Amino acid sequence: MSIAEHLTAEHRHCDTLFSQLENVLDNEDWDAITTAWRALADELLRHFAVEEETLFPAFEAKSGITQGPTRVMRMEHDQMRELLAEGDAAVAEHDAENLRGVVETLLIMNQQHNLKEENVLYPMCDQLLGTEFVTQLQETV
Question: In what residue span(s) does the Hemerythrin-like domain sit (predicted)?
């Protein structure tokens, strides 16, 4: 399995969690919404940590590139973390309207982010780090 295949599978899992959250948002069942929100937020944060703590440093060390794609990805992760904090507040306040807006913005941002990773960064990582690096990713977080 390649780095791209492994991390793209994580992206697809997050897509499923987005869908599950959107399905329960319409019912305004706050127990279900809270559970679905936490599952999505926790998985996104875990995925960001895998990239930031393992993949990005390895890529930067091997390539010598520190101000390129990994810098952009970290900035986008930070933007999505801000949205996750807004979503946490909306869930705590049972504010479905605000949460819908956060989820919509987060979904669009995440989709655009994933395209960049899947089409640019991950192939570069596969080329530089090789498939054996997937084991390190699987052991992280």
Answer: 3-125
Give the tokens for residue 18: 């987005």
**18-41: per-residue pLDDT in tens?**
999 999 998 889 999 999 999 999
| Residue 67 buriedness (CB in 10 A; 0-12 / 13-18 / 19+) | exposed
Q: Are 30 and 14 in contact (CB under 8 A)?
A: no
Q: Which domains does the chain have, with CATH numbers?
A: 3-139 (1.20.120.520)
Using CA atoms, how far residue 96 sits from 19, 90, 99, in Å, is 16, 7, 5
Coil, strand or helix at 75: helix
Tens of pLDDT, residue by residue over 99-115, are: 999 999 999 999 999 99
User: Alpha helix (H) ranges present in 51-92?
Assistant: 56-63, 69-92
Mean pLDDT for 124-140 is: 86
